[in-house]
Specification:
about 25% helix; globular; alpha+beta; 4 helices; 8-stranded antiparallel sheet
Length: about 200
């Protein structure tokens, strides 16, 4: 019994050593969540202070979740109709070149492989996908970074593709799961890229 009491006291002392002085248990365990959920795209847009690239349901994808990340990025989560493996994460972040506005998205300017050569590509990556073999494409005169994302769940056939581009003062990314490359490129060429160009275009007077 005495031995058990000594072990228990030692454990209590060890745990106490990791508790910052003056911090309550609630403060110690609370980790700020950069993702804030909203009931609508409009609510997220009001919170972030800018409009988001939105894919209408006629596309075959319906909106399931809406987030604002770190107060400066709008993150929309979609589910494909009739395909449980088909998902889309669509992100919009405002690019502000002034010192007073929001900070630009963090950008490491990675080296991309294109026809056996390494090239520098300034398109921001807001997708959260890192370590992929990015290539570059030009779609509707917009430079786009594209990469295949291999799923660890081989049985579910959730391999997908991700794209990142910028236009109209915004940085965008689209991560499709459960899709092949022709269908992915079709989504970019017929929907997302034109929508981002037309909806966020800066007109000069």
């Amino acid at each position: 019994m005495k031995k058990q009491w000594i072990i228990g006291a030692a454990c209590v002392a060890l745990a106490a050593a990791f508790v910052p002085s003056g911090a309550s248990a609630a403060e110690k365990e609370t980790i700020p969540n950069p993702m804030v959920s909203y009931d609508s795209v409009l609510g997220a847009e009001k919170a972030a202070g800018f409009r988001a690239l939105y894919l209408p349901e006629i596309s075959g994808y319906h909106l399931e979740s809406v987030y604002v990340i770190d107060g400066k990025m709008i993150d929309l989560r979609y589910q494909q109709d009739g395909n449980l493996a088909g998902k889309l994460t669509l992100r919009t972040e405002k690019l502000d070149r002034s010192a007073k506005g929001m900070a630009k998205p963090a950008e490491k300017k990675p080296q991309l492989l294109t026809k056996g050569k390494q090239v520098s590509e300034p398109v921001p990556n807001t997708s959260g996908i890192h370590g992929a073999a990015w290539t570059k494409e030009t779609i509707n005169d917009v430079r786009v970074r594209i990469a295949k994302v291999t799923s660890t769940d081989r049985a579910a056939s959730k391999d997908g593709y991700v794209a990142a581009w910028k236009t109209g003062g915004k940085a965008f990314s689209a991560y499709y799961e459960g899709i092949d490359k022709p269908a992915f490129l079709h989504q970019l060429q017929s929907a997302l890229i034109p929508l981002s160009q037309n909806y966020f275009k800066n007109f000069k007077k």
